[in-house]
Each structure stands twice: as C-alpha cells, then as structure tokens.
Design a protein that fits this description.
- The chain is α+β, with helices and mostly antiparallel strands.
- It has a single domain, classed as 2-Layer Sandwich (Nucleotidyltransferase, domain 5), CATH 3.30.420.100.
- Helix content is 45%, strand content 19%.
- It is built from four helices and four strands.
- Strands 3-2-1-4 form a four-stranded mixed sheet.
- A hairpin with a 4-residue loop joins β2 and β3.
- The longest helix is centred in the N-terminal third of the chain and has 21 residues.
Length: 119
C-alpha cells in the first residue's frame, strides 16, 4: 500500500511543478513551445503554437523504434530539430512538463541546442 501512495505523491508533485512552470511559458507561431513527455518506455515531444492551439511538429521514440535512455533522447531531439528547421523554426521555448531538468530531459534539451535550435 505504501508504494501506491508514493507513486501518487510523486505524480502529484510533478503536476504541481507542471502547473507552476506552464504559468509563465507560452508558445507562438514564431517561437513555439516544445513540450516533452516521457513514460517508462518512450519519450515524445511536440512543438505547439498556443495562440492557435495547433501542433507544428511532433516526434516519438516509439514511432522511431527506440526505448527511453539518454542516447535515444538525443536521436529523438535530432529528429525534432530537423522537423523544426523544415518548418522554418529556429527558436523555441522549452517546456519540461513538470519533470526535473535531469537525465533524459536535460539530454533532450542539450541535443536540441547542438542541432541548431535556440532554447
């Protein structure tokens, strides 16, 4: 029973961080919000124009046949950077979605920077 309570507390804290961070992050067509989501198996990200409520570019490690680790997060970020450049987007706002800036989330952001996207 304790394990279930621990998971519920962990998820509640993430949601709390997410709401706090999202209060100050907003994406436009020129500078979209890149939101990352990670599960236990996969990582996915999308560039969102919050003004119109549309997704400009999206990528998923599941569609690429990759699982979740730092090396694969770099590959997913490289694919997203390629999609963003094809759409003519060079600058984005990074939304870590309530996750701590560590591990896969940090590797993803660093890989976006390495591929020419300004965060």
């Amino acid at each position: 029973m304790s394990r279930i309570k621990d998971l519920a507390k962990k998820n509640a804290l993430r949601i709390k961080r997410k709401k706090r961070v999202r209060g100050s992050i907003f994406g436009t067509a020129e500078k979209p919000r890149v939101s990352i989501f990670k599960s236990n198996k996969y990582v996915s990200a999308q560039a969102i124009n919050d003004v119109e409520g549309v997704t400009l570019a999206a990528v998923s490690s599941q569609a690429m046949g990759l699982n979740i680790n730092k090396e694969n997060a770099v590959k997913v970020a490289a694919q997203l950077a390629e999609n963003l450049k094809a759409a003519g987007i060079e600058t984005v706002v990074y939304d870590r979605n309530g996750y701590l800036y560590h591990g896969v989330v940090a590797a993803f952001a660093d890989a976006l920077r390495d591929n020419g996207i300004k965060l």
